[in-house]
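Duplicate of #3305? Posting structure anyway:
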């Protein structure tokens, strides 16, 4: 109910598209930090990191340190983010036009939306699996009804208030979520104890070394060097250019604030991955100490479509969290669900309006742009509901997110970084790199299976993700050299602290 009231109230302060998409570029550091954390610490993050902790135990902690290090490095150097904010753009594709051409903007925005909506496609399902598992409702109809209800709630206040309502609700949800995460972490450690966490390594055949491609626990594939390289590339790219994070950067009141935002966010980014991993590790310790219960859970995964490895953590919490606190924890997780969905819906709908419809349709009033953005939010919501209901993940959820994100990131990295720091980058090179990112679709589960069957190959999503990044970078450099722009492109923005 409070989210609906906020949406109605925030609607009064939406006068133009800048207010609607980037909150008028007025975010100060503290509020920007809260909304950045609220957005990136969503329920889907909690679910996939806990799933990794359950399947790969301590080895999965490498992702937390990898991301925190990448965000801190960006904050210290100002690499990319400083110059993007100084250019006064509202979206990444807007930079494409400023540096290259309107054609690059439209094509880049289209690929971004395809990647983003696919990436977001299973957020709804993951969140609803948490609610159904922790509440004991395991039938598929309950899952569908919860998915629909949660989505409608987020759609309502996001459509009304845009970024203003998103920032305000993110702040409130950040406070609720923070409280819930502290409680859950304390309960998990109290329930399992230090001996229980130690037993994972000493007696329960747990997975400890991420550089080892063999997972001794047998609950999922190992990690190994190749996957670590893949995740370094994906996470490093996403830290700079993932659109929802970039929206916070572009909403800051100055480039200096945007840079400081990244430096301080490194701590919250470390926590957003590390704490849920410990919940997943505690889940593994709980089930491993009770073989009969573990066997029952694994049988349920095989026979009940609504129960997957994602369900393990909420089922564990339902058993160990006292009833009185369980409601608060559930509220915190629902807050996390909402704080991610509202930002993602606004981000992709804004790109559709600002970077696809407007350049194609010509001059449009602010009222028309806001209306189209609101319609796009509802259309994306319907697509998410449909995709979440029928698509089945063939690997862990994080693997799916990394692959779908590659479709956009692999082309965006050479296009943006090359545009900011290499004067010879051309329009043709940018288009080639962006379209080259579509090769990342081949790394999705069904496509990998088809490729291996058709061509008798032994590739997986990791191989194809790295190939896609390399392919787009090579295309950008080679095509820019072969087909240079008639006049050199320059950027007249403030100098980054990165040298």
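Output from current build:
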């Amino acid at each position: 109910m409070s989210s609906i009231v906020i949406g109605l109230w925030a609607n009064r302060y939406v006068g133009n598209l800048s207010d609607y998409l980037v909150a008028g570029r007025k975010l100060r550091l503290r509020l920007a930090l809260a909304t950045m954390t609220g957005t990136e610490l969503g329920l889907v993050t909690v679910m996939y990191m806990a799933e990794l902790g359950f399947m790969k135990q301590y080895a999965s902690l490498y992702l937390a340190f990898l991301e925190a290090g990448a965000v801190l490095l960006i904050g210290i150097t100002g690499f990319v983010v400083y110059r993007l904010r100084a250019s006064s753009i509202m979206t990444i594709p807007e930079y494409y036009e400023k540096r290259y051409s309107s054609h690059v903007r439209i094509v880049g925005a289209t690929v971004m939306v395809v990647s983003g909506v696919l990436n977001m496609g299973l957020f709804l399902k993951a969140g609803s699996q948490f609610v159904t598992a922790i509440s004991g409702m395991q039938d598929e109809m309950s899952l569908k009804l919860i998915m629909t209800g949660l989505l409608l709630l987020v759609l309502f206040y996001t459509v009304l208030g845009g970024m203003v309502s998103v920032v305000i609700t993110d702040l409130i949800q950040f406070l609720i979520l923070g409280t819930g995460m502290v409680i859950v972490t304390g309960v998990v450690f109290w329930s399992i104890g230090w001996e229980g966490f130690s037993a994972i390594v000493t007696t329960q055949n747990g997975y400890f070394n991420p550089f080892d491609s063999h997972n001794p626990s047998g609950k999922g594939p190992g990690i190994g060097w190749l996957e670590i390289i893949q995740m370094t590339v994906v996470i490093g790219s996403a830290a700079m250019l993932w659109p929802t994070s970039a929206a916070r950067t572009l909403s800051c009141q100055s480039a200096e604030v945007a840079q400081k935002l990244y430096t301080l966010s490194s701590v919250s980014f470390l926590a957003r991955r590390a704490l849920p991993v410990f919940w997943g590790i505690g889940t593994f310790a709980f089930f491993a100490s009770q073989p009969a219960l573990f066997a029952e859970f694994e049988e349920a995964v095989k026979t009940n479509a609504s129960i997957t490895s994602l369900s393990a953590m909420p089922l564990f919490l339902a058993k160990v969290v006292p009833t009185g606190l369980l409601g608060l924890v559930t509220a915190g997780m629902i807050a996390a669900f909402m704080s991610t969905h509202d930002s993602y819906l606004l981000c992709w709908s804004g790109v559709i309006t600002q970077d696809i419809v407007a350049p194609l349709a010509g001059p449009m009033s602010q009222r028309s742009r806001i209306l189209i953005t609101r319609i796009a939010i509802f259309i994306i919501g319907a697509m998410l509901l449909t995709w979440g209901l029928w698509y089945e993940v063939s690997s862990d959820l994080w693997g799916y997110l990394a692959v779908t994100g590659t479709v956009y990131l692999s082309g965006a990295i050479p296009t943006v970084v090359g545009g900011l720091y290499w004067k010879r980058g051309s329009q043709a090179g940018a288009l080639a790199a962006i379209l080259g990112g579509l090769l990342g679709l081949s790394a999705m589960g069904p496509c990998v299976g088809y490729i291996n069957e058709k061509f008798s190959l032994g590739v997986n999503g990791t191989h194809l993700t790295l190939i896609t990044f390399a392919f787009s970078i090579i295309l950008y450099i080679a095509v820019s050299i072969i087909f240079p722009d008639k006049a050199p492109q320059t950027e007249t923005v403030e100098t980054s602290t990165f040298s």
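Confirmed duplicate; merging threads. Residues 1-7+24-88+123-393 form a domain with the Sodium/glucose cotransporter fold (CATH 1.20.1730.10). The radius of gyration is 22 Å.
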